[in-house]
Amino acid sequence: MSFGVIFSLTLYFVLMLGIGLYAWRKSTSNSEEYILGGRQLSPAVAALSAGASDMSGWLLLGLPGALFVSGLTQSWIGIGLTVGAFFNWVIVAPRLREQTERYDNALTIPAFLSSRFPSKALTLRSVSAVVIVVFFAVYTASGLVAGGKLFDTAFGDLVDIGGLTRYQTGIVLTMGIVLIYTLIGGFLAVSLTDFVQGCIMMLALVVMPIVVVIRAGGLDVTAERMFSVDPNFLSMTHGLTIIGFLSAVAWGLGYFGQPHIIVRFMAVRSVKEVGTARNIGMTWMVISLLGAIGVGIFGRSYVVGNDINVADPETIFIVLANTLFIPLITGFLLAALLAAIMSTISSQLLVSSSSLTEDFYGLFLHREASDRTMVNVGRICVFLVAVVAAYIAWNPDSQVLGLVSHAWAGFGSAFGPLIILALTWRGMSGWGAVAGLVVGAVTVIAWIALGFNSSFMGGPGVYEIIPGFIAAFIAILVVSLATPTEGEFRPLETPAE
């Protein structure tokens, strides 16, 4: 490993730890500051924090890898995500920012749901916390898998360390750095590091496709090589079935139920600034997704033209970084990948620990705990969730995209319909909320267990978020219409207490 790579990565690590220290001094005196940054995020920080915590290593590993293998048909995932993210900003963001403050200044999604549906408060907080911790353990594991693959692929010249393989060493190092700044600085540290990491990610995704095309000899040569690989490589519809299309664009449904993303909406300084944050966030997302598509498509052309072996398609970004750039720039690009990985892991760890702290410890074990005690318990929970995620990620054969897709579907189905209807429908009842949460989560788990996401009725698999989202939506409507709703909607005109 060259000095240039070490220098760039060291600089990146120091920057992240420095932000964590700043946040510790600025915003960890009570639970609201540690969990939600005191609701004082600027539009730019909120937008890029939501985007960076959303995309994770999937943006630089999973999506380029899928495009590298299958061509432009995989871009429908990105299109579905873009549409879903836009409507998430329009439908959920302003309402969630308003209502979480009105409903007893709720700091977590489970706390908001319990205040919104007081008749089923205990049940909703308990079940929500369980769903969040279970699916986030899997989701966080996907980020650690990405960190392991980065270390194993990029630093192949290093020997195994202390009985650990390079892959396992990558998991430990990734988890260690994230834990330090998350434990120290809480939500503000996570959000500020997300902002910086989002900028680094976008810059890397703009630079790499351009350099790949230039080094390949221009667009004409690049296109010619792609057609030589597969005449339909650049087709968005070749071989695409209706089920395949729906499974790809259905990724967008997941946005409405991702706690680590929508919690950013709760932390924006004011409802009036949500529109500005939306514009910034959507611009960042479109540029970054186009860059990721370019890495996968142009990367396939480049490795074919130069006879480069790529053992794992999900490492194409790393292979190109090592092949095309001087060590100093390679280090920056690898830091961008680490940024994508760490930004999501830190957000997921914090949301998981917040639910364990606020919705389990504070609810069942110590109702009168002081703010300082709650902050310290939150830090312990961050560590515990990280350990479980590392255990899940320890297998080097794990796939980033597969782990992300399961967790994404789980959250999207369990919380998506629930959040949308809780914010917009006065007729929703407490029992309806519980039904939607349970039915959505159980449907996704059952669909995966039965293998219907791989093969359904003799045909291609159906992405589990489709049946999960639909089943949860129907469950909420049916149960709510059959049960009383009196006292379970506080009109927005009522001043916050």
Automatic annotation (TrEMBL):
It catalyses: L-proline(in) + Na(+)(in) = L-proline(out) + Na(+)(out). Its main location: membrane. Keywords: Amino-acid transport, Cell inner membrane, Cell membrane, Ion transport, Membrane, Sodium, Sodium transport, Symport, Transmembrane, Transmembrane helix, Transport. It comes from the Bacteria. It is a multi-pass membrane protein. Pfam families: SSF. GO terms for biological process: proline transport. InterPro entries: Na/Glc_symporter_sf, Na/Pro_symporter, Na/solute_symporter, Sodium:Solute_Symporter. It is found in: Cell inner membrane; Cell membrane. One of its GO terms (molecular function) is sodium ion binding. The chain crosses the membrane at residues 6-24, 75-93, 122-147, 167-192, 199-218, 238-258, 279-303, 315-341, 377-394, 400-423, 430-450, 462-482. GO terms for cellular component: plasma membrane. Belongs to the sodium:solute symporter (SSF) (TC 2.A.21) family. Catalyzes the sodium-dependent uptake of extracellular L-proline. This is Sodium/proline symporter. The lineage of its organism: Bacteria, Pseudomonadati, Pseudomonadota, Alphaproteobacteria, Hyphomicrobiales.
